[in-house]
Amino acid sequence: HTMVNEHIIEYLKQKQNAANLQHNYRLGKVFGRAVESLCKYPLPIACGEDARILVGVGDFIVGQISAFLTEYHLSHPQPAAQPLPLPLPVPVPVPVPVPVPPAAAAAAAAAATVDEDGALPPQMPPRKAKTTRKRAGPYMPRTGSGGFAMLLALLDASATDRAGGMRKHELIDKATVFCSSSFTQPASNGFRYTAWNSMKQLEDKGMVMRAGNPPVFYLSTQGQETAQVLQAKRADLLVSNDNADGHPVDYAADDDAASQPSQLQPSQPPPLPPPPLAVQSPPPPPPSGPSDVRGPLRVELLLDLREIGSAEDRNYLSRQLAARGVACESKRLSVGDMLWVGRAADGVTYVLNCIVERKKVDDLVSSIMDHRYTEQKFRLRGCGISNVVYLVEGALDRVTGSHFKGLPSTTIESALLHTQLLDNFHVVHTHSIEETVSYLCSVTKCEIQTKISNPYHNL
Q1: What's the angle, vertex CA 388, arms to CA 444 and CA 418, rounded to 5?
Q2: If we measure between CA atoms, which residue out of 401, 357, 363 comes closest to residue 379?
Q3: For the chain, how long is the longest CA-to-CA vector?
Q4: Is the dihedral of CA 149, 154, 157, 159 positive or negative?
Q5: Cα angle vertex 331, ends 325, 336, to 5°?
Q6: 3-state secondary structure (DSSP) of residue 302
Q7: Which of 19, 109, 307, 459 could form a disulfide with 24, with the two C-beta atoms 3.0–4.6 Å apart?
Q8: What is the pLDDT of residue 290?
Q9: Considering the entire predicted model, what is its pTM?
Q10: Cβ 181 vs Cβ 142: under 8 Å
Q11: Beta strands in 405-457 (DSSP E)
């Protein structure tokens, strides 16, 4: 096969020399580049299409190689393939009789004897094969294990922060109080595993998700439901442990009464233990509707402190919104850039069901390249607000070329389609900051009109 490659190279060199003699140096360079690539190619060339993958080989060189190989195979026919010899027959082993010991033969004869009634002796029933029972229901970590502790820690974090994400060292600090083993030191039973190894099983079961680098761990919807069940079981266990000791505690008595000795007479029966503490369910939400006693809601727009109009005028966005009659306030938001809230007359603030993530075109490209784009969308999906608006500000015609800031335009278009179709976000495009202000004013007016008719619906 290598002889065929050598003949092809020799043929192309002849073509190169002929082109140079005719002063067609451009054609000579074409043959020269093909010769250099073929000299470095280690595999045999069976047809012209096999050489198309090489540098400097195009349709013209492929045609030249195909024509040469056709002529070469006609002048050098291949010998016919010899048939393979048939395999020899495998001898069949002859079974050799095994001698039976006299004791075993006597036992077999005794087992086959018939009793006086003509019935065979009772036979032992066949042993049933052992079957392994599969665990039914969803995966539930054992109390005090690493998975149990990490789920409770992430549930506490989601209760205090809407994002609910924690890094590894933060998660270990919070989960240590719920775990009976160490997250850093292996157990003394000879295994090299710690409580942190349970994180892989939580991720495989779809209860915990990670995003970013260094990774941040979040609870999924399934993990949050499992953590709530574990938290209720832990509360029941603590209550049962309080009521299981031999000295019942009188929870209704004060400290002074508890410190005094008991004056019971021998004829009086011992006091009954107090009933177990019941886990109280949260009070039902107040009725909603136009006749709600809490009064109407005052709709306000919250802007993240990091959202600015431009480098020259950082307060341009908030000033333009206030000039158009939109009540807005700048606060540090843990997720999103714009958020609408409703303030009641009694001072209670309610979060409305709409959040906006604002991205300029340059910031969108940078977030895709440094992977902030995926992490931010994950936090938006887990914030508990269903109406998520992904607002892209700037001229998208700047990215219609082949590349923009080193990123292909097809990647940017695919990212926006992924956000709209798979993440179910509302992708809105504005060409300038003035259009962004107009869009925010329109959403604010829509929220105000909605809360006039039914102020406490869909909060």
Answers
A1: 140
A2: 357
A3: 132
A4: negative
A5: 95
A6: strand
A7: 19
A8: 44
A9: 0.38
A10: no
A11: 407-408, 426-430
Q: Token match 């909060």: residue?
A: 459
CB atoms within 10 A of CB 377: 21
Q: Which amino acid belongs to residue 6?
A: E
Q: Is 374 exposed, middle or buried (0-12, 13-18, 19+ CB in 10 A)?
A: middle
DSSP single-letter state for residue 166? B
Distance CA 175, CA 141 (A): 14
Cross-strand partners of 330: 303
Q: 95-144 pLDDT, tens per residue? A: 666 666 666 666 556 555 544 445 555 555 666 666 666 555 778 888 88
Q: Are 407 and 369 in contact (CB under 8 A)?
A: yes
Alpha-helix residue ranges (DSSP H) falling in 112-177: 146-160, 168-175
CA pair distance 339, 299, nearest whole angstrom:
10
Q: Tokens 């309610």 sit at which residue? A: 350
Please choose, from the candidates 40, 63, 6, the residue with its C-alpha nearest in 3D space to the C-alpha of residue 14: 6
Q: Which two tokens stand for residue 103?
A: 């004791």
Tokens of 73: 């195979």
Q: How far is CA 404 from CA 359, 397, 400, 412, 416, in A?
A: 16, 10, 8, 9, 15
CA distance 438 to 425: 20
- Please give the helix or strand (H or E) that residue 355 lies within, else none: strand 349-360
328 beta partners = 301
d(CA 246, CA 274): 12
Say what the alpha-carbon torsion angle 13, 18, 20, 26 is, to the nearest 10 degrees.
Answer: -80
Angle, CA of 218, 166 and 282, to the nearest 5°: 65
pLDDT greater at residue 305 or residue 28: 28
- Look up tokens 């019935």; give the residue: 119
438: tokens are 């107009």
Nearest alpha carbon to residue 14 among 33, 43, 35: 35
CA distance 123 to 121: 6
pLDDT, one tens digit per residue, over 244-300 is 544 444 433 333 433 344 343 444 444 554 444 444 444 455 444 444 556 678 888
State the Cα angle at 45 between 39 and 47, rounded to 5°: 135
For residue range 30-60, what is the model confidence (pLDDT) as tens digits?
999 999 988 888 888 888 888 888 888 889 9
Q: How is the beta sheet containing 388-393 ordered, strand by strand? A: 328-331, 298-304, 338-343, 349-360, 388-393, 426-430
Measured distance CA(168)–CA(163) in Å, rounded: 16
3-class secondary-structure state, position 284: coil
